[in-house]
Amino acid sequence: MIKPLADRIRPQTLEDVVGQEHLVGEGKILRNIVEQGEVPNMIFYGPSGIGKTTVANIIAQKTGKALRRLNATTASVSDIKDIIGSLDTFMTPNGVLLYLDEIQHFNKKQQQSLLEFMENGKITLIASTTENPYFYVYNAVLSRSVVFEFLPISEKAVEKALVRAVNFLSENDYNAYKVSVSDDVIEHIARTSGGDVRKALNSLEVCFMATVPTESGELVVTVETAEVATQKKVLHYDKDGDGHYDVLSALQKSIRGSDPDAAVYYLAKILSAGDMPSACRRLLVIAAEDVGLAYPHAIAITKACVDSAFQLGMPEARLPLAEAAVLLATAPKSNSAHNAINAAMYDIEHIDTGSVPRQLQNVHCDGEGDLPKGQHYLYPHDFPNHYVKQQYLPDKIKDKVYYEYGDNKFERATKEYWDKIKKN
């Protein structure tokens, strides 16, 4: 029985691992630990298909320990006893490195059965979980382990793994044919994989299986085959081209125009293309640029929705992002802060605006020629309503007005408040 492609081309060194540079890159913490050879008990936390098992295998090779694997969804205490029974035998002269997948499915008793051997070093535990270990792993195990968070793989990194896989298949399984896999196929599979390398490799393998060679011996994997293999069609959405920015522009203009139907449509198009980060970034921009001070809480709510989306991952991430898009589309609008900062930045870049007024500067020692002596800053909290009139802008632009109150309810109320205070 032929192993799945993902297992057959599994990296054997840290250099071949795609993604996780924050852990296994040159000089990073996990790489340094592995190279030192003294491996602590560890918990790998992150989505499936992003390299947790691969890194555990490489660590086992480096340590010289016997590798044992258990999946907590099917393993029992007796399986752990079998591993314990093999300790101090010629089978495990240097101890055991136990890779325990989905540790969150072990109950407290099963997890605690490992503690004694984790402490004396006979078992080095590497546990993996797709759930937050601080909620699903018992404290006694957690306190004896180092937690490493594995992140979803970037599209570029997935593409690198796919190219490696194409070369492997071309040189081995399909070496009798002239294999052709276009960049569009690679990019589509990577984009629809959701950062899951295993899923991407499985899709590629299906593409090869489903492609019928021509009479001339060519095996051409098409985009249409990739669409079927991934169950997603190719959208006209080039992340580095006009299509990408056209859809993002349409999303922002639809929200600015207070059209929630168009907003969720363009959001769906972006998410269907696998580009959740761009959608999140654009929604945060819209909250500040187009809703702004008309509804100041919008940016905090949008940020909460974006954080939830990254925590959930697709497809569930579509829900909080849709909530943010509809909220922003139906919220009152104001670009007063946007206009104010643009006007201020224009002046800073194009005219001489002068120095910070003396009364606003950090406290300096007066020189002999400095008159009048003293800083003369008026502390607003010492005055009624926490306000006192004084100059804040530099002398050369002291009468400049950058911020104009918007005509929405919040800014009108703010203006009325300050007009009353400043008049008195």
What would you say this structure looks like, in words?
This protein has 424 residues and is of the alpha/beta class. The protein has helices at 5-8, 21-24, 29-36, 52-63, 77-85, 108-112, 115-119, 133-136, 139-142, 155-171, 183-192, 197-210, 223-230, 242-256, 260-272, 276-291, 298-312, 318-330, 336-350, 409-423, and strands at residues 42-45, 66-71, 96-101, 123-129, 146-149, 178-181, 218-221. The strands form 2 sheets. A 5-stranded parallel beta sheet has the order 2-3-4-1-5, with helices on both faces. β2, α5 and β3 form a beta-alpha-beta unit. α10 crosses α11, α12 (197-210) packs across α13 (223-230) and α16 (276-291) runs antiparallel to α17 (298-312). The radius of gyration is 30 Å and the shape is extended.
Mean pLDDT: 85
Rg for CA atoms? 30 Å
Residues in β-strands, percent: 5-15%
Largest sheet: 5 strands, parallel
Identify the overall geometry.
Answer: extended
Layout of helices and strands, plus pairs?
Blueprint: H1 5-8, H2 21-24, H3 29-36, E1 42-45, H4 52-63, E2 66-71, H5 77-85, E3 96-101, H6 108-112, H7 115-119, E4 123-129, H8 133-136, H9 139-142, E5 146-149, H10 155-171, E6 178-181, H11 183-192, H12 197-210, E7 218-221, H13 223-230, H14 242-256, H15 260-272, H16 276-291, H17 298-312, H18 318-330, H19 336-350, H20 409-423
Parallel strand pairs: 1-4, 1-5, 2-3, 3-4, 6-7
Helix pairs in contact: 10-11, 10-12, 11-12, 11-13, 12-13, 14-15, 14-16, 15-18, 16-17, 16-18, 17-18
